[in-house]
């Protein structure tokens, strides 16, 4: 890349001399201090024709890479991404790592590829688009629709580490019960004691995709009382927002 221009190596050398990180390496290479860190720097870096290089002697094979100063990184990224077929971040990073070296290469590559206008226009989505969240009908009868969720807390003297929160969609009445675990048996006992025995079985029970809520035993429990089991979509807490925003402010 740099060798294709007559003054490229000279310009790169000037950029390295004005770069803070390259200056630190240069000072350590010229240092007379004898400690493990300085020895490691001298084994890992060297100058060749005024250019700072990174040297890696792994498995007896020497690999030499150019240390890229901050001011030249956008040029290198453009060459290895824009001028090389607009590959994804992983392939662009592999191409960069084969010839160049700088500390934040992985992060910079991801940000550069993510912000590439051409990639955003041309690349097609390979996964299904997210569906729109619909509105639920507002129940008129108390405890007809109930949402539930777990919240972890510091252990109490009784050994309780969690609370199971249930909220009525009609009245916004919140029922909070401390529990020792998030196991299915504890959920069943709590729902049966604090919800069903007190207010009757709800028509709909809305919960997340936790393993305790999706187990066969919990399904059998809901079927026993004829309760509809609704799961909120993964990674979308807003779909069960009533319980999500009601628990934390009240605890």
From TrEMBL:
Q: Which Pfam families match?
A: Integrase_H2C2 (PF17921), rve (PF00665)
Report the InterPro entries cross-referenced here. Answer: Integrase_cat-core, Integrase_H2C2, Retrovirus_Pol_polyprotein, RNaseH-like_sf, RNaseH_sf
* GO biological process terms held by the UniProt record: DNA integration
Q: Where is the Integrase catalytic domain?
A: 138-251
Tell me its EC number(s), please: 2.7.7.49
Molecular-function annotations in GO: nucleic acid binding; RNA-directed DNA polymerase activity
Q: Which domain of life is it from?
A: Eukaryota
**Record's protein name:** RNA-directed DNA polymerase
């Amino acid at each position: 890349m740099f060798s294709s221009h007559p003054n490229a190596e000279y310009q790169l050398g000037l950029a390295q001399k004005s770069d803070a990180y390259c200056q630190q390496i240069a000072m350590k290479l010229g240092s007379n201090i004898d400690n493990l860190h300085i020895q490691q720097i001298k084994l890992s870096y060297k100058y060749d024709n005024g250019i700072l290089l990174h040297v890696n002697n792994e498995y007896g094979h020497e690999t030499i890479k150019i240390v890229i100063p901050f001011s030249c990184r956008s040029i290198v990224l453009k060459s290895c991404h824009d001028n090389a077929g607009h590959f994804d971040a992983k392939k662009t990073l592999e191409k960069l790592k084969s010839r160049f070296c700088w500390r934040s290469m992985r992060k910079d590559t991801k940000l550069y590829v993510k912000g590439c206008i051409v990639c955003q226009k041309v690349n097609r989505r390979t996964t299904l688009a997210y569906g729109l969240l619909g509105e639920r009908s507002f129940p008129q009868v108390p405890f007809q629709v109930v949402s539930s969720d777990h919240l972890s807390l510091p252990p109490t003297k009784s050994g309780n580490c969690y609370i199971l929160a249930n909220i009525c969609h009609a009245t916004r009445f919140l029922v909070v019960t401390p529990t020792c675990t998030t196991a299915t048996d504890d959920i069943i006992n709590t729902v049966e004691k604090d919800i069903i025995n007190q207010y009757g079985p709800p028509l709909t029970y809305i919960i997340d995709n936790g393993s305790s809520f999706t187990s066969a035993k919990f399904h059998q429990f809901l079927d026993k009382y004829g309760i509809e089991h609704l799961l909120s979509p993964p990674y979308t807490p807003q779909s069960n927002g009533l319980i999500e925003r009601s628990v934390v402010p009240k605890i």
